Amino acid sequence: METLFATLHVVAAVFIVGPLAILPMTAMRAIRAGQGQQVDVLARSTFLLSLLSLLVVIFGFGILGFSTHGTTITTGWVLSSLILYVIALGLSLFGVVPALRTAAAQLTGAGAGSGSTAGAAAGAAAGAADGVAAARRRVAMFSGITSLLLVVIVVLMTWKPG
Hints:
The chain is about 85% helix and about 0% strand. The protein contains five helices and no strands. Helix 1 packs antiparallel against helix 2 (about 35-50) and helix 1 runs antiparallel to helix 3 (about 55-65). The mean pLDDT is about 90.
C-alpha cells in the first residue's frame, strides 16, 4: 500500500504542482501582452491547482500511515516540507491568485472605460497600466518565492536528511 500512495504522491506532484509552478509565469506573459481574458483563465486555473495540490499532501500522509521505515510527521524533513508547503500554498492562494485577478480586471476593464474627455481617458489608461504593472510585479514575486519553496520541498523529499 505504501508503494501505491508513493506513486499517487509523485504523480500528483508532477501533474498538479508542476503546472501550479508554471502557470503564473505563463500569466505574466499574458499580462505583458494585454490579454486580460487569458490572465483571468490562468488565475482560475492557478486557484484550482492550488487547492488540488492538497492531494499531494493527502497521499503523503497515506505514505506515512503505511510506512515501514519509521518515518512520521515529526521527522525533520517531513515536518519542514509540510511547513514550507503551507507557506507556498498561502502565497499562491493569497498572493499570486489575487494579483492575477487584479491584473485581469485591470486589463479587461482598461479598454471598456469611456472618459468624458481625452485627458481623463488618458489618465485612466495610465492608472490602469500602473495597476497592471504592480500586479505583474506581485505575481512575479509571490510565484518566484512559491516556486523556490517547492524546489526546496522536492530536495527535502529526495534527500531526506536525518
